[in-house]
């Protein structure tokens, strides 16, 4: 990453970058020098790479695995995407727009379920209440007991409190059988999106610190998944990949499967 920053600086010095890249735009801006140092720009680059690339690619990986192992889900999704193409009246080989695709309830459900099981950022994100004490009330089941106990704690102001999306996404009271890939959980009895579940989806975090690239990420997911469904999945099969290759085991900012995983691998047959 430092070399990318150095190249961007050299290109700018030589008049080869007209602020068409992220690094070029930052270097050309009126930000103070401290915000343009090699260290600062390197950190920004890693953030963009981890949050803007790995998250979407991992979500698509998780979705791909589950669709290829559950052919009924893939068939249902394929039928809906083909219907979207027919309804859109697009030219041969063209896909509907993002706006048209996001109106398709099952495609939306598959994407939301993929986001739920890919988590976005899996590490704990801390928040600090600076102006008030926090009162926590909840229940827990002590080890070796089958009876839950009510607990109440006061967390003094100024203390950092953190949790991960993994915890919320596996809340069985909200997502029953939470480790299963079930897009239908996002649909109501009329087959439309269950908006009340959105409040429990933390793949992009929430509030003032939520992901600034959420709309770009959704655009990528809708367009890429639709393309994969029509053009790639019919010729793709998994190769020596199991559920352990997509199940959360640990995190380094982003979620990772078990350490000996070789990732989700597949074979694509010739057309």
| Chain-averaged pLDDT | 90
Number of helices: 8
* Major β-sheet profile: 2 strands, antiparallel
Q: Identify low-pLDDT runs.
A: none
Tell me the series of helices and strands, N- to C-terminal. HHHHHHEEEEHHEEEE
Strand order of the largest sheet: 1-4
According to DSSP, the number of beta strands is 8
**Could you give the distance between the termini?**
38 Å
Could you walk me through the main structural features you see in this protein, from its secondary elements to its overall organization?
The model has no long low-confidence stretch (mean pLDDT 90). It is built from 8 helices and 8 strands, in the order ααααααββββααββββ. The strands form 4 sheets. Strands 1-4 form a two-stranded antiparallel sheet. A two-stranded antiparallel sheet has the order 2-3. A two-stranded antiparallel sheet has the order 5-8. The protein is α+β, with helices and mostly antiparallel strands. It is globular.
Features:
8 helices, two-stranded antiparallel ribbon, 8 strands, single chain, two-stranded antiparallel sheet, about 270 residues, globular, alpha+beta
């Amino acid at each position: 990453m430092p070399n990318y920053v150095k190249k961007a600086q050299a290109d700018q010095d030589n008049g080869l970058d007209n602020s068409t890249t992220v690094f070029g735009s930052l270097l050309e801006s009126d930000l103070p020098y401290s915000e343009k140092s090699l260290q600062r720009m390197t950190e920004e680059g890693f953030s963009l790479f981890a949050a803007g690339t790995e998250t979407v690619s991992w979500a698509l990986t998780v979705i791909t695995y589950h669709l290829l192992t559950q052919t009924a889900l893939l068939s249902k999704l394929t039928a809906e995407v083909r219907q979207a193409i027919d309804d859109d009246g697009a030219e041969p080989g063209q896909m509907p727009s993002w706006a048209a695709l996001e109106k398709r309830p099952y495609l939306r459900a598959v994407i939301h379920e993929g986001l739920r099981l890919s988590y976005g950022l899996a590490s704990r994100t801390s928040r600090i209440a600076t102006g008030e004490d926090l009162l926590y009330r909840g229940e827990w089941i002590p080890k070796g007991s089958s009876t839950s106990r009510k607990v109440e704690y006061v967390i003094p102001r100024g203390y950092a409190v953190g949790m991960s999306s993994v915890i919320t996404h596996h809340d069985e009271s909200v997502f029953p059988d939470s480790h299963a890939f079930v897009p239908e959980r996002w649909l109501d009895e009329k087959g439309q999106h269950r908006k009340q579940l959105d409040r429990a989806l933390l793949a992009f975090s929430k509030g003032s610190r939520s992901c600034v690239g959420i709309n770009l990420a959704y655009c990528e997911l809708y367009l890429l998944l639709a393309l994969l469904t029509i053009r790639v999945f019919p010729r793709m099969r998994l190769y020596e990949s199991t559920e352990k290759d997509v199940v959360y085991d640990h995190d380094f900012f982003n979620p990772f499967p078990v350490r000996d995983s070789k990732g989700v691998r597949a074979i694509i047959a010739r057309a």
